[in-house]
Amino acid sequence: MMFPLKHGAAGTSTVIAFQTEAILAHQAPLLARLDSLDALRAWRDVVVDAARWQGGAGGCPLGGLSSELSDRNSWARDALAASFTAWAETIRGGLLDMVANGTLRRGTDAGRFALALLAAVQGGLLLAQAQHTTDALEAALDTVIASIHDQAAPR
Fold first, then answer.
1. Which residues of 16-34 are buried (b: 16+ CB within 10 A; e: fewer)?
2. What is the pLDDT of residues 106-117, one digit of tens each?
3. Using CA atoms, how far apart are residues 138 and 120, in angstroms rounded to an integer?
């Protein structure tokens, strides 16, 4: 199903902004408290539980919009890219806090891990939508989190 453009660029931009704000408002408080690997796993559990509650249906609103609009409209692609960047930056901020407090080693590439976590969420939600199970979402997040755990600072 194609996303209707009956409200034009302004209406579609409003939808993208609304979905971005909704996602970040839901996740930002959790990501702002990333001060340990346990907190990272708790964020993972919230993401998985939300997908599980929906039976895997629905996917990610931004992912769905991106799939429908990015190849058709450069302005939508730019807006969606900015939305994903904001989400990745929010995750990165939490990981940087873990570096700052000594949970993760100095030199941990928080930006790369943030992108990997976001890609795991997006790919996992897409597969959850198609398969109506969170197995792929859990596997992807758990694999990235295990790699992040490998960056834990010695205690």
1. beebbeebbeebbebbeeb
2. 999 999 999 999
3. 9
